[in-house]
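S.,

As promised, the pyridoxal-5'-phosphate run. Input:
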Amino acid sequence: MQVASSEQTEPGTLDPQDWQSLRAQGHRMLDDMLDYLEHIRERPVWQPIPNEVRTPFHEALPQSASDLAAVHDTFMRDILPFASGNAHPGFMGWVHGGGTPVGMLAEMLAAGLNANLGGRDQMPIEVERQVLRWVRELFGFPESASGLFVTGTSMANMIAVLVARTATLGSSVRHEGVAAAGKRLSAYASAGAHVCISQAMDLSGLGLDTLRLIPMNDHYQMDIAELARAIASDRDAGYTPFFIAGTAGSVNVGAIDDLAALADIAKKEKIWFHVDGAFGALAMLAPEIAPSLAGIERADSIAFDFHKWAQVPYDAGFILVRDGALHYSTFASPAAYLKRESRGLAAGSPWPCDFGPDLSRGFRALKTWFTIKVYGAEKLGAVIAHTCALARYMQQRIKEMPELELLAPVSLNIVCYRYRCKDPDRVNADIVVALQESGIAVPSTTVINGRFAIRAAIVNHRTTANDIDALLKATISFGEKILLPHNQNES
Ligand SMILES: *Cc1c(COP(=O)(O)O)cnc(C)c1O
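Predicted complex:
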């Protein structure tokens, strides 16, 4: 067998023979995505996926090659129009960020570089460390604090639970397991906390029942007196309280726990104080909202997402830990093939893989770094404040509309409301589906004090007052339509 000369294409390579035509195709693909973002308002927010679109995606493993242009056409025809639509200004479901053109371009650069940020001495890791320094600065954490990009706050919360477990049981827990310590641990979060905190207890081997869900006060914050009572009664019963998770921006209504009061209790009781600030923590960027996060600077760890309020493309979660040495001792593991050196590419220890469960890691830091550099912290803070102003506007409009009813006070950027009628749970569930299928707007749903709610979380920087008006107007018109006698007979 002959070895191919450098003039010929190597049989093993996946690079093109004709870079010129790849370049032209690449430019078309880039233009298509810029067109998508420039004209996104002209599209429906979301549309149901027809069977003719879904079915071809059950094809067998393709053995032979296809033209890049043809695969791109399939993307444009079958994938792009049927995404969840969170880039669209009418998207207000769950808590989704909108993304930005800058973030998209940075993702392209990161993909081209194909950096693996598990470790080694490379500038991409310096970029991640730069973001860590900015995060420390934002939250008033010391230089010894450590931090790491992860998929999202779910993973960040789990890392916090594991570090807190090490703090309480010592690093021998890594060898002997939780049971060997002979202690029954207990943890605390608001009844309005995100379910991923329970899941973190489960995944870390502590068990779902470790987490006590503390009742909320009238402002949907964790009730501090109830928390103190729960801790005392657990101590009496022989438990070791080890973890308090405050929520900064609750998923249901956007409530912020009294973080300073939680910090006081945690300090007095010597319990780890964690903040789940998935979206809310970055309100630190908005000077008019930051004061409501007072106490967050005293946390032992903070979990949050750049992919929500900071508009960085998915995914870009982050965990910040005050005690970097403890964080390191929770995850660092020796392995011959990961040996560190003082010079050469294997220098630069500690590596990001010493602070979390991932070894291979993508360059999430780059799209975040670009977003912060290009837009600046001030502008990102202004976007956050603007979404809160829109939520207050929406609250005001709802109060003025006799057909609608507000179900929870607006504290940040989340508005829960419903259409007034008989059998409101059923009718409002139908309204939400009709809204989503109409392509006009995408709210999601929740239950507030046993009442079914239409929930709009205004996160996207593209959303305007017109989008809010369109949602409210359509809510009323779908409500009226669903209540027509002929529709009631149907269901
Ligand atoms: C979104 C959210 C989470 C989960 O974060 P992911 O990035 O989706 O893993 C956790 N807590 C709160 C309060 C959230 O809003």
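The chain has 15 helices and eleven strands. The pocket of pyridoxal-5'-phosphate is lined by residues 95, 152-154, 194, 196, 247, 249, 251, 276, 278-279, 305, 317 (CB under 6 Å).

- D.
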